[in-house]
Amino acid sequence: MAPPHAASPYVLSLVLLLLSVPAVFLLAPRLIPPRTLPAIPDADETDDLALFRRAVLLSAAPSSNSKPAAAAADPSFFAAAYGRMTNRKRPPKQQPKVAFLFLTNSDLVFAPLWEKFFDGHHGLLNVYVHADPSAELTSSPTPSFKGRIVPAKATQRASATLISAARRLLATALLDDPANHFFALLSQSCVPLHPFPTLYRTLLADNAGPKGRHRSFIEILDAEPTLHDRYYARGDDVMLPEVPYDRFRVGSQFFVLTRRHAVMVVRDRRLWNKFKLPCLVKKKHSCYPEEHYFPTLLDMQDPAGCTKFTLTRVNWTDAVDGHPHTYQPEEVSADLIRELRKSNGTYSHMFARKFAPGSLDPLMKIADSVILRD
Q: Where do the TM regions start and end (predicted)?
């Protein structure tokens, strides 16, 4: 017969095992990463759908004498927009306007430069800003930006929240002014490369789309080296059947869409139900939904209506962690602006990113002599 103390190691092991089980349940969520990245909150999705429906309804029946459904439930921004739309006396045919949509998570440092770009042309443009709620917009906005902050939701890299923000801007601009015909999505680090009249002539001159319509300037690529990893970022076969691999496209996050394409984007539900799905954590570095959704949707629905190249120049030669080259103050010069204008497409680039905040002063010094002069 074994001595009484011989069983003690087994008892101790059992006790430790029983104590460790609760610890595993408590610590596992912190030690084991989630299978997927965070999804878009249901409340944000519900708010967006209501906004998008209003935008589509207004665009389907743009008469200034009929009030869009549910407009009374809109925030004050939309109420003011409706007031402008219904109270002003419009000529029989308005000139098309360019809606500048700024997507930002920080101060609008380059607002003074954009103000010079807009100066004298306010009858042909509108400005809208989607500022992430975490952004601290401390600097006083210039006149064109004042009062143009639209209702916004939080955004996050490697998630579809950036798609939602862009769609929110498009829907807001559709509701605000029926004359908005072109929609230019930009970031807080973008700067103009040409004067406004050059941009305006470029947009109006490009009418090579079906039935002589204006085309959207959006990059659409089907042979990008990382296409495979990007397509499967949400898992195997997740994008099927709506988005087959051979229809998946990649492009720049920033674009200029025509009004019919802006409506197409905010109306879409079918592809959105796929692209809004969160990516796998292990595929985080391949998850750039905002660079996939727009080119894929427009290439599937109206490829002939797109130029397939962007008007925004980006330097990816020394990209770091998915961010392009950031131009520092000492790099700013007339030669740099002229170089950034060059394009492989029919038209030269109209905008460029990414510029460091400290670049404002040197940019302002060459604004009148270079940037705003062709």
A: 6-28
